[in-house]
Amino acid sequence: MPVSLTKEQLRRVDRDAVSHYGMSSLILMENAGRGAAEIIHQRYGSTNHRRAIIICGPGNNGGDGCVIARHLHNRRWGTYIFMVGDAARLSPDTRTNLTILDKMALSITSAPADEAGERLATTDHSEDVIVDCLLGTGFTGEVRSPLDSFIDQVNRINKRAMVAIDVPSGLDCDTGKASHATIQADLTITFVARKRAFDLPDSTNYTGRIEVADIGAPLELIAQCATNSA
Length: 230
Fold this sequence. Notes:
Helices cover 40% and strands 18% of the residues. By secondary structure, it is α/β, with parallel strands linked by helices. The chain has a single domain, classed as Rossmann fold. α1 crosses α8 (219-227), α2 (25-44) packs across α3 (60-74) and α3 (60-74) packs parallel to α4 (92-103). The chain starts with a strand and ends with a helix. The model has no long low-confidence stretch (mean pLDDT 94).
């Protein structure tokens, strides 16, 4: 059976990959985003209409989204980035990758959740792939307002497909508990390994199909962290 990790075990993988193996966190983010973009392209890139709406939060999950946007653009997708939330809270690696997108002159909309929702609602997305990079594995509890209303609105949008990155926003990756507002994905591209919550039957209502993307962390490190309780 494939290994499933808790969020604490995943933190150990990231931490030790950087501190013990000397891997750059930017390299890990690059590998994650590039791997996810490859899966998206393989699954949805066979048609002439290749457009992705990539919804990013200020944390590292949003940074993964920025990398995905760059690699999909390089594969001749139309990419539109919505940076949702407080720009002052951008993580350093997310800020670096967002700056790259800005220098590439890609379409970037930075807005609070309520304003971002209004802008999304004005466009037909029936042929678009929407990519959820809002909250990531650190989320627990309930999604706060106005982000909860934004997530509900994204779920209601008529779209070609919804892809969640690492974990659907609003889903606790340990317990499998869904917030009152949780992304309902057709495909979840998760990093390093499956998350503990994915083994629970109700989680499939939110994850859809699950694919694991490699970020380059040593297999020995993943195995070591998997055997340590968390």
